[in-house]
Amino acid sequence: PAEWDAAALAQRAHLLQTWEWGALKQNFGWRVERIAWRDAANLYAGAQILYRALAPGLTVAYIPRGPFGAAETLVPFLTALVRHVRARGAFLLKLEPDWQRDDPRAQNLRAIRARPTFETIQPSATIELDLTADLETILARMKAKWRYNIRLSEKKDVVVRVGAAAALPAFYELLRVTGARDHFAIHSLAYYRAAWELLAARDRARLFIAEYAQQPLAMIFVTAFADQALYLYGASGNAERNRMPNHALHWAAIQWAKTRGCARYDLWGIPETAAEPGETENLPTSLYQFKHGFGGATIHYTGAWDLVFNPVKYRLYQLARKIRQNKIGA
Questions:
Q1: Do domains 2-122+302-329 and 125-300 have the same CATH topology?
Q2: Among residues 51, 65, 62, 71, which one has the least CA distance to residue 18?
Q3: pLDDT tens, 226-263?
Q4: With contact defined as beta carbons under 8 Å apart, do 192 and 200 qualify?
Q5: What are the residues facing 48 on neighbouring strands?
């Protein structure tokens, strides 16, 4: 684990390519492999691959925010990677690299016959704050209302503190409220506890708690790896929302991330259309507006790429996904 994460750290890989993230997924239904392009002294490229059997004889392979490595090693590495995954019996290899749109490395994916797809798993766009400036500049880049709300939360006696494992049940209860209010599915408490235990053990996670009168109003689960801090999960109740606990939480997390030496604070996902001219007013929620108010830059990723090994099974897979989505929509 230490050698893998050291290589991922040196290559500025994403959190989802760390050993701990793979261990988390392995505890919840995925089989994990880590393969590398290396010599005796150095690891030049790597990929953490997650496998899941959707049905007997129907296994998908997935690389979240990977592979990672030097551009000049990607072509031979990807060729070996394809042979490896095909030999494992997967009908599909889905890749979602940690590359921005129009990254020239995407041509290496075309070279292995992978094709872009709209069926993404990770966010296809996000907002990222530049933490290399001083705190005053970071604050000045925010919208005036956001600076006001940060100050207002303090005036309204909101206190932000760092929580430990004992706070996870309260975090989960707030998350259940958030999921019901904002109409999204959540994992089990066991999943978030496992994520905390694995990441906190390597000092890569913090649970920030915003309280009023010693009652938790909102919490965020933030990670740090390489030069990036990542707002991974957030939860808030319905009470005392006028005290702006979420603004206070992110300001505390930004300060922590900067102290850690992170150069970026990723707000973890916005709708892909959010930065298109004239479309922000059509978003169904205030998600984009809230994140955009912190003054970051909109980042568009290269998206998901599918390499199909068995076209018949792939069509069955797409049909099953469409049926499932229609049922959810109904």
A1: yes
A2: 65
A3: 999 999 999 999 999 999 999 999 999 999 999 999 99
A4: no
A5: 34
Task: Please list the residues that pair with 63 across neighbouring strands.
Answer: 95
Q: Which residues of 200-222 are buried (b: 16+ CB within 10 A; e: fewer)?
A: beeebbbbbbbbbeeebbbbbbb
CATH 3.20.170.30 is right for the domain spanning 125-300: no
Tokens of 180: 């019901």
CB atoms within 10 A of CB 302: 19
Is the Cβ–Cβ distance between 248 and 221 less than 8 Å?
no
Q: pTM for the whole thing?
A: 0.93
Q: Report, as an integer, the average pLDDT of 117-144.
A: 97
43 Cβ contact partners less than 8 Å away, ≥ 6 residues apart: 3, 7, 36, 37
Domain boundaries, the chain: 2-122+302-329, 125-300
The CATH topology of domain 2-122+302-329 is: Aminopeptidase (3.40.630)
CB count within 10 Å of CB 305 equals 20
185, amino acid identity: A
At residue 325, the pLDDT reads: 67
